[in-house]
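Most newcomers find our protein records easier to grasp once they have seen one. To make this concrete, we reproduce a full record directly below:

…
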Amino acid sequence: MTEQELIASGKLELYVCGSLPENEVQEVEDAIAQYPNLKKEIEIIESSLIQLAEGVAPPLSAMVWTYILNSIKNVRNITKETSDTTNWKAISGWAAAILLLCGLFYFLNENNALQEELEITTTETNNVKEQLEDVTEQKIKTETILADIRSEAFTPISLPGNQNVAPEAKAKIFYNKDQQVAYIDTKELPTPPRGKVYQVWSLIMEPLTPTSMGLLDEASLVDTGLYKLENFPEAEGFGITLEPEGGSETPTLSQLYVLGTVNTAP
């Protein structure tokens, strides 16, 4: 078969898309080696396939195009030839190429979907990891607090409720006199109403001298219902009052919820 006959036969298109029968592949490859123009013709066919795909598909990277081109060259399916005045071989070659490209695009879309799912899973895993780290950090913090208040350096002091204001209220202070640190357990104090906050006072009894230790708010919260206050004067007693948000300069005695002295330590 001459060079022009081979071009007109449609076998080059079938060869490029991998649909040429195996027994004719060697014939085409021998012809390509014999006629240098056939190599250029194959390059034109390959370029046309890529341009065709670009017209019906979104832009893809050079790496993806290389993958498609290699797939076109490597796929081999046995197809019977038919003789007709219409160049059915060329048409079937283009049809096979289009089907192959559609399959490749479907595969790439599926791959992109899997990649997105993998990214979502990775994000969720990182979120769980961060939550676990937060829980672990809080656990270590809680264990450190418990070790502190159970040590001999801290004295537990009960603060019973004021019978005239909140007879059911209770609180407990773990007091470190040397370091001027106190942990206040408020689990048995009523939840303060909106616009109000508990304020803790250290007391000197004779004469009665209250000094604010701080507010029981988010800034002093160290665990559920447990607050930490520091840097206050040595105390003979402690009281907790209900004050307006932001606290007061002096305690509102009519809102004194709990009161206890150091010598009431168990």
In short: The mean pLDDT is 79. Helices lie at 3-9, 11-17, 22-34, 36-56, 62-74, 88-150.
